[in-house]
Amino acid sequence: MSKIVLVTSGKGGVGKSTVSALLGEALAYTKSRTLIIELDSGLRSLDVALGVSEQILFDMGDIIRGSCSTKDAVLECPFCPGLSLITAAAKSVSVTEDVIKKIIAEMGFLYDYIILDCPAGIGTELSEAAKCSDIGLVVTTPDPSAVRGARAAGAVLASCGVKNRRLIIERCPLKAKKLYPLNNLDEIIDGTEIQLISVIWEDPDIRNAMDSGEPIDDTGLNYENFRALAERIRGKYIPLGFK
Ligand SMILES: Nc1ncnc2c1ncn2[C@@H]1O[C@H](COP(=O)(O)OP(=O)(O)OP(=O)(O)O)[C@@H](O)[C@H]1O
Ligand SMILES: [Mg+2]
Prior knowledge:
The protein has 10 helices and 8 strands. By secondary structure, it is an alpha/beta fold.
């Protein structure tokens, strides 16, 4: 059965969908079959990032209404063999624990990892998804309001029984690279009360890749960081260091 990896943040726009897409690509690169389920009803974006917009016939809304089978809504990423997506409902629908568990039951034997890309916020959608998850990745940027949101999201995960919670600091300014491990990053980690698993640098190439539906450059700033993140999710010990 698949391992279920939830990606959340509390505050919006911090990089959850970016992490979901690039972690998915990095996992697929290791030959781990990976399905991303986008839970952001009414606000889909991963179809663009994974270059599958033209393929969409069915989405999460169709699965929930029963107008297609789960399998019919699975889209294969054209540039990343082993990576698939169920795109978010085009209109707002509520995605319950039962719906997510049904998809996991139907698709779990086909994938090593299922990534749940959550919408922003700490409401019922987060707790419903959390009840289905093995690992909770909490994404924050260095902004104090995002750090506060991450702490709140981490608390929701804890209250839903997600024991394995890890922090990703996204869009980190490159100048922090020189300063690490001085207070700036440590303060973020302390502020969220979540153990760090990865730091992702602010990098215009990431935005370009997400907007163009192409993979990130394998010589880019964050390529190795996502590879290392995928290996850590797979249970390998990769020391936290900055490339
Ligand atoms: N490391 C990065 N460097 C530069 N831009 C980034 C980085 N990570 C994400 N972005 C950009 O930040 C914006 C928000 O990212 P993303 O959509 O992944 O956030 P989100 O948390 O999923 O947002 P939402 O809460 O709306 O779902 C996007 O334009 C994305 O391309
Ligand atoms: Mg998103």
